[in-house]
From TrEMBL:
Biased composition (Polar residues): 491-508
InterPro entries named among the record's database cross-references: GLUT, MFS_dom, MFS_sugar_transport-like, MFS_trans_sf, Sugar/inositol_transpt, Sugar_transporter_CS
Start and end residues of each stretch annotated as Disordered: 485-508
Keywords of the record: Membrane, Transmembrane, Transmembrane helix, Transport
Protein name: Major facilitator superfamily (MFS) profile domain-containing protein
GO CC list: brush border; plasma membrane
Molecular function per GO: D-glucose transmembrane transporter activity
Residue ranges constituting the Major facilitator superfamily (MFS) profile domain according to the UniProt record: 14-471
Domain of life according to the entry: Eukaryota
GO BP annotation list: D-glucose import; dehydroascorbic acid transport
Record membrane topology: Multi-pass membrane protein
Family matches, as PANTHER family: SOLUTE CARRIER FAMILY 2, SOLUTE CARRIER FAMILY 2, FACILITATED GLUCOSE TRANSPORTER MEMBER 2
Transmembrane annotation, as ranges: 7-27, 77-98, 110-128, 134-159, 171-195, 201-222, 287-310, 322-343, 350-370, 376-396, 417-440, 446-465
Originating species: Zoarces viviparus
Amino acid sequence: MESGKQLTGTLALAVFTVVLSSLQFGYSLGVINAPQKVIEKHYGRTLGVWSERAAVLSGNGTEEDGFPEAGQHPAVVMYWSLSVAVFSIGGMLSSFLVGFVGDLRGRIKGLLMINVLAVTAGLLMGLSKMWKTHIMIISGRAVMGLYCGLILGLVPMYIGEIAPKAYRGALGTLHQLAAVIGILISQVIGLDFVFGNDDMWPLLLGLSGAPAVLQTFLLPLCPESPRYLYIIRGKEQEAKESLYRLKGPYDASADLEEMRREKEKADREPRVSIISLIRSSLYRQQLFVALMMHLSQQLSGINAIFYYSTDIFTRAGVSQPAFATIGVGVVNVVFTLVSVALVDKAGRRTLTLVGLGGMCCCAVAMTVGLKLQNEYSWMSYVSMSAVFLFVSFFEIGPGPIPFFIVAELFSQGPRPAAIALAGCCNWTSNFAVAMFFPYIQTWLNSYVFILFAVLLLGFTVYIYLRVPETKGKTFEEISALFHKGRKKSAQGPNNGTELQQLKTSTDA
């Protein structure tokens, strides 16, 4: 059987098991939106700044200091904002530990260890009515953020290392597919007649830890990454056994030879820490591409679309905007499936360019629709269509590809540090958009999408000029693509020169 073409039951189980973490990430991302009003009431009562009676009196105009809605009280606003933002802060902090956790005991044991965080977070939020609600939820969201910051690095790293070359893109995209399914599940069960109500919301938040429980039972059945076993631990026989478990009976000599060459190169290189990776001129081009891919994902305006979609649907006369937003979630899932099918045929670069270019056009269409919908009623349907198309283009390329392409761009030595830096870049830009978008929206109003159109155009041009196609290539071949344009002294097989260059840059 030809090496690199096998899809086995063990490989399917391993990928399914690790993407349960991605499902949990998506669920945690979306779950906080639906029950906002209900949770704000609990915050108001717990803090002693709001009550139903005061709200009624305030509504009748008989009490000056009352707030008709708990969410209008400054203390509640502050604690609610913290509940949403602390998730990103946790992710930012823990993204730097991805390499350490992944290399400490292996990818599988690393995922097993951090499940303690997910279960703890689920319990804190699920039992939040038992003590001070705001403290419990903020603590739970912070711990869940720490967990998600780690899995956003570990999951693509593990899948990238175990996937056969021919299916690396499709299997890598499953991380994003699981995340958007998680978002959709959270939107559906967050409806007020399901769990998004006064009685059931703690269960809704607590369920974010449920996939970790199932995963804890399945992870021991998954093989460790052969690349980790061979290149990091030097265990050739165990790596070979892991390859056979993942790919079935086949001639593993080509895979082992590729790993042997990568190990030799890794052994000659100093250990690449985050600081030395930033300083090294040898990896600068790859690192810049990795960071730009993640920036293009977060600064594309996708979060703004989810923030604005209910408003757009309301203006367009949709009687149940919450259901229209769930419709956007369904489109999310469908087009991520399209990406899974296309990514190993069309290629990473092509799909990213098509996605970013399409989103740029949709952002312009949305601006035109929003500006003219008061003059022409049919323009509201232009805005609605633009929302659905914007999400479709995002999930075809810019959504899933940045997560797994970083693992493809770097060899074993710098890979954990690169994934950690890219993850931190993703979380930081996510946090920045969440914090500043409402202010930018107030300032620019419906012209806000022109800002995103300009950013999208810039990212499209950069990726067209700088990002190579990685489809169907070995990690060595991808690395060689970046060194083609370098001077001969810093090129190719002369690893001594590469080592010297890295040493120079790390000592600088």
